[in-house]
Amino acid sequence: MNNAEPKVTVLMPAYNAAGYIGEAIRSVLEQSFTDFELLIVNDGSTDDTAAIIGSFNDQRIVLVNQTNKGVSAALNAGLSHARAPYIARFDADDICYPDRLKIQYEFITAYPEYSVIGSAADYVDAGGHYIFTHYPAAHLNEEIQELKYSVCPFIHSSVMYKKELIINNGGYNDHAYTYEDHFLWVNILKKARACNLSKALIKVRLNPESITVDERWHSRKFRSIKYSSLKNRTITEEQGTELYQISGKQYPARKKHGAYYALCSKKFLVNNYQPEKARYNVARAISLQPLRLDNYAIYVMSYLPERMINWIYKISAVRA
Known about the structure:
Distance between the termini: 51 Å
Number of helices: 13
Number of strands: 9
Oligomer: single chain
Strand content: 15-25%
Largest sheet: 9 strands, mixed
């Protein structure tokens, strides 16, 4: 490993990511910006994740192994080992476009008043096929500051931020289970400038192993704890334990796969109107979770014209 301090640390937590991590690592190593370390925290993986990481011969890769402690603990461990002043977050199943680091590093150093820089992202399915492009809810700092606490301002794996700011804020909160990034933002953005670049700099992969593939598949209790903690910007250990216990019961493999196909079907209706693909995905969701009535509603809606679907979506968003 090069002993010189890198300009950027790409921080990647990984847990049982053998199916995708090879492609994710290659997308980082092939960046046009080369002065970085790729710090991978292997969070107690039981598959071939470690072996795949070890198959790469590049001195910029730094591997930290730990017993399984969850995403927040893995990220905090990574922050403690990171040598660069800037952190580029990245997930083990996503893909960086070649100029991602170059664009964000040049921006954050040219405009040092900014502490967090996010971007748009192209979403793909488990097989890497394009679904839609997600543009953040706000781009300018003033717009981000005005967002309601319930709206997450960034795609987590797209952000580059100043390491010192996050560490001084105590890092990621272990109790904010599955929304540790959102909880972090509500606690730091009142004292930090941020923005989102409109260009998609990464591909985010939706896949059945994601813990939080669709907000509506959470229980009401989970959502209640989540949004009250975001509103109050605080969360207790007891609440964190309850969130973990709820999710442990809520996400067996069958439910994860059902949620994944349901989410893909929605995106093929609302974000990238392709009704045949929407019907294909929602049919698979129904086969896995036949008692979820919302899936049948999606199937019926897939026969409506795009203009009517957009109108229904806008009405439901206003009421929510």
